[in-house]
TrEMBL record, chains A, B:
Signal peptide: none annotated. This is Mandelate racemase/muconate lactonizing enzyme C-terminal domain-containing protein. Keywords: Magnesium, Metal-binding. Its cofactor is Mg(2+). InterPro entries: Enolase-like_C_sf, Enolase-like_N, Enolase_C-like, Mandel_Rmase/mucon_lact_enz_CS, Mandelate_racemase_C, Mandelate_racemase_N_dom, RHMD-like. It comes from Phialemonium thermophilum. The keyword Metal-binding applies. PROSITE patterns: MR_MLE_2. Residues 201-297 form the Mandelate racemase/muconate lactonizing enzyme C-terminal domain.
Length: 455, 455
């Protein structure tokens, strides 16, 4: 069914920041205080439908992201939805081109802005078809999936023809996987809410027990406090979760390459599935070296939260640097680029375990992981579940009593934030940010920087 | 001589854009219209001195850069200059840390903003010492150079101790190289002004002849128009410059990896020194593959203009992907990170040929290349000279009649733009941007995008 003609008539961009640092959510060794934030774009249309897209930031600099979205968003005003969706791969390439490309080709803040704009188009498209985003893509033919991807820079690893062949091989069994998705059996959950560095030992123990009673077996914890402190902390976590619990640790880019290898060797007896972000996300060769060195110790390597584009993932896969592809649904250029990374990961046989440790991330990734299972890999992987701020969303993510993500059912890409949140948390006009504590947080340019005075 | 105590009291950030696209300056296959632009920061001090720093953009999105600079710049207000310069490596790490890091660690727009802030500190420091920036660094002890660098993520290739050893080995002959620098014999120039794609054949011929009469032997040209057109264009350039002319071509990330190899093989008879930016700047393994494949054809590979940080350069060197390191003086985190890339390049024996194809770039790079020669590599390389917009600067770059860059003599980092430029070209308030043509350019969100309607 073709969508009826819909024209984009205008847009709004809003700076939304939740003061998550007050609860120590989002703390890690590189950032002692993070405020989950969105550069939040809405496209208005002549059909009454609104297309919503956002990218995630961590407090300071969210205004930079909003400025970038304001720069790109006008490109689609006056355009019909069908003129954009007829070839979404080309639409991606065009939004990534031009003068603005020089500042940061497919990287950094500009890539986040590109994602927000394309997310809004995908959201609008899915709403126009009255389908959740994952189902819109699940109902594509292989040719339609390929047309959504910009294959530039990928052809040495994945051509459109190879992608078609992979997608066609999954077609015969797709209906069965759609059935599983509709029964909430597509995407098993794992838990990280227990692991933020700011939490006390007691709080971590309590959160773990609560998670286990909900059926979780996978747990991810922040590390990097120093070997003694980490061994103590991870040791009691291992005690609480028992031998059958699967533990992962994350140090958020803390180490140099050889330092990561040495440190992790000393944690081998704790039986960790992988070390996440051991070093700079740009260090492809470094990740490959770390993985090779830790393999004899039974420890894998994962990264992706800060990987900006398909070219970096291509190389991480070529270099055999990863045991899990932790793509971030905002860091890449929306569903377009995510599809290319899902395909490459499937080709190399590496599971996709999306990063979803922030507000709204689970909402987006429950679509992404469902698409991976239903359309691309055909295999169940796992998806991080963090339990904060779901109440802020019109179509909140949730998990089942047996530890699966609930497959989204509302039309769209689950991007819409409840209007009431803006009254409190839009920055700087919301009531929280106008309060004394809010003003103090906003006016501290060093907030979250290790080693500096922060208020 | 220690500088007297100077305190930073405030700052201004201005959006400066020259309408260079009107002269077809800055055109390439990925961007059909570029406006050389600065996010321009000035720190005011209680001593009357002003520290100036900027990063380069290409028109649209320069406001994103300015917003990013405004976010970071407050961190140094109220600080004394000596508290920042006592350990510039640590100062770099601190400005790259905190909430803002999450959006784009040491990449993209945030890295450009980091550069602008640190450039302003270096400029202020050199002015306080009444020395041109290159001389400030040339007068450092090896220990002082090492203290200016953040070695995070580098230790698998370069440790502080190894850097010290390299720098000490150059100390004995440094005075002689300083003498050469003072005689304008440190940095040979090469020419790209003839090569922008927007120029007609006649204009290219005329510009080449003029450059040759000024003593230039190296010429770089844009390519990527298609094999037939490129062969025709490069063929007549080869005719004009003769066998002794050294030709380089640049396609600004146009191709996929295997496409680059196939295309360039067909240009082998034109005897090209290197192909610049054959593919995505993020594709380290791709550049290595292209270089290996083209080596038998006598064609080298270069990149760097879009390389964001020391970790990417580290890997390009580890992977033996480069014949020339084309670092960009704004893309990296100022002199701090440039020093680390100079050291790694020297360690791997690859010449540094900085990118300086835009307004103000030659002004900065004449310091950078002088530092490379005097302090780090001890070897003469070459530096791009483009001849537009020098008149806009308080301390303009220039070349000697025998084809060397004039070594800067004015105190500071040659960042200061003449105040009169802002009246015309500050955006959007300047007279040019308020004019009919200026408004039309600003209001075209597709400007420069290949295949789109642009005005």
């Amino acid at each position: 069914m073709a969508p009826k003609e819909i024209t984009i008539t205008g847009f709004t961009v809003r700076d939304l920041r939740w003061p998550t640092s007050l609860d120590n959510i989002g703390t890690d060794p590189m950032n002692l205080a993070g405020e989950n934030s969105f550069g939040y774009l809405q496209y208005q249309t002549d059909a009454g439908l609104v297309g919503t897209g956002w990218s995630f930031a961590n407090g300071q600099g969210n205004d930079v992201l909003c400025t970038a979205i304001r720069s790109l968003a006008p490109r689609f005003v006056g355009r019909t939805l069908s003129s954009l969706t007829a070839n979404m791969g080309q639409t991606q390439r065009k939004i990534s081109s031009g003068q603005i490309r020089f500042m940061s080709p497919e990287r950094g803040v500009l890539q986040l802005a590109t994602n927000a704009v394309l997310n809004a188009v995908w959201d609008l498209w899915a709403k126009a078809e009255a389908k959740p985003l994952w189902r819109l893509v699940a109902d594509f033919t292989p040719e339609e999936v390929v047309r959504a991807i910009d294959f530039r820079y990928l052809s040495d690893v994945l051509t459109p023809e190879q992608a078609l062949e992979m997608l066609r091989a999954q077609e015969g069994t797709k209906a069965e996987r759609i059935r599983l998705a509709l029964e909430n059996k597509a995407v098993p959950a794992y838990n990280t809410s227990a692991g933020w560095l700011g939490h006390s030992d007691e709080k971590v123990r309590e959160l773990l027990k609560s998670a286990m009673s909900q059926g979780f077996r996978h747990f991810k914890l922040k590390a990097g406090l120093g070997l003694e402190a980490d061994r103590k902390r991870l040791g009691f976590v291992r005690e609480v979760v028992g031998d059958e619990g699967i533990l992962m640790v994350d140090v958020n880019q803390l180490w140099d390459v050889d330092e990561a290898i040495e440190y992790m060797k000393h944690l081998a007896d704790l039986k960790l599935w992988f070390i996440e972000e051991p070093t700079s996300p740009d260090d492809i060769l470094g990740h490959a070296k770390i993985r090779a060195a830790l393999k004899p110790y039974g420890i894998g390597v994962a990264t992706g939260e800060h990987i900006n584009n398909r070219v970096m993932f291509k190389q991480l896969l070529q270099a055999e640097a990863l045991d899990a592809v932790q793509l971030d649904a905002c860091r890449l250029a929306s569903v377009n680029e995510i599809l290319s990374v899902l395909l490459m990961s499937a080709k190399f046989g590496v599971p996709v375990v999306p990063h979803s440790g922030g507000a709204g991330m689970v909402e987006l990734c429950s679509h992404v992981s469902t698409i991976d299972f239903v359309v691309v890999s055909g295999k169940k992987s796992i998806l991080e579940y963090t339990d904060h701020l779901h109440e802020a969303f019109e179509a909140p993510a949730a998990i089942t009593p047996d530890g699966f993500h609930v497959t989204p059912t509302a039309p769209g890409y689950s991007c819409d934030v409840k209007e009431a949140e803006f009254g409190k948390f839009e920055c700087p006009s919301g009531t929280f940010w106008q309060s004394e504590i809010g003003q103090k947080m906003l006016n501290d340019p060093w907030r979250g920087v290790p080693g500096e005075q922060t208020s």
